[in-house]
Design goal:
This protein is α+β, with helices and mostly antiparallel strands and 396 residues long. It is built from 14 helices and seven strands. The strands form two sheets. A five-stranded mixed sheet has the order 2-4-5-7-6. Helix 5 (55-79) packs across helix 7 (103-124). Keywords: Kinase, Membrane, Phosphoprotein, Transferase, Transmembrane, Transmembrane helix.
Length: 396
Amino acid sequence: MKGLGFFTLIGHPLFWAIWAIVVPQPYENLPIRLVMAVLGLPLMSQRIAHDPGSRLSGRVFTAVFWLELPFLFSWMYLCNGGNQAWLASAAAMILIYYFSTDWRIATVGLFAGAASARLIFEIAGPAAPPMSHEIVMTNTMVLAFCVSMGLLLGISSANLRREQLSNTLATMGIMAHELRTPLATMSLLGDALRGAAMEAGPPAEPKIESLGLRLHSLVRNMHHQIDTQIANARLLRLPRQAERVDAAELVAQAVAQYPYRSSRERESVQVEVRQDFNFRGSEHQFRQVLDNLMKNALRSIAAATGAPLPGDLRIVVDTKGRTGLITVSDQGVGIAQDLLPRIFEPFFSTNHKTGHGLGLAFCREVVRAARGNISVRSEPGRGASFTIELPELVSD
């Protein structure tokens, strides 16, 4: 995002010099170029660059690129009488626009930008070289070909990525299901150990009983992890539910049901309810969201300190205006700044040894389905803080 912003900032003055001095065109406008160059600054801001997956970043990116590409290029094409230089530029713009964003956004933006530029040109446009009927028809055919190719490639690429992701997720779900069989055997072994403990009597009974209980605890933990991975693997097929969910109760249940590895790990989690709120979404899916965030946080804390302390993981429920907030903060190893823009992408993980990169992608999809947003702030060595923003549900 920063690279695009930097290119926008320096690119427009550079192209003005090319089209106005080096290869003069009938129309070029320095003030317009400078205004467009300034639009690169929002793309370079910390909030946008470090959280490109947020709704704010998406809206800023869409608006800036709509002005920079279809609107500006259509305006310059019309002002230059559709000459060869701007016909080629418009054709390149179409392909770049389809490549840089979703094909649906590109199609709507392309026609809206061209229509807006045409309207303003008719009202306040400069005198432009006239275009003959032959030039209009020829240019229209060239541009229509570029649009059709951009649309075809955009749809094909989107379908291919979705199919690849779907097949990978399905494979992961099958593998998780297959682990149930050996776990069932382990559970039977735990029952057998506890039965043998009763027959052995003291002093062996307590030790064997303890081993059986530990085995059962391990099986329960593994089943929980499998449920988590299966839920994450349904990333593309999340059922849309609209329950009324109480945020404080949701957090309390998620904290109580999490399979902690030790009592110290459980004691490290502290919950603070400053202002409770209700929202509409899937309670089950949001418990899974908190489960993913807690798992990542506890692993990060273990990597940083080894032995967690009370308060190393804090979950805060609060409101800001009409927006509900759930914040999960840890005192772990933190996340490098260059990795922050990608952590919500499917299959991207900061933990290359055990992470599969689906947990946070799942979290983002669930939160977005509830018309909310999830963002992260972090510094290496100073932990991470994930904030879920949700529209507060007004009481009936």
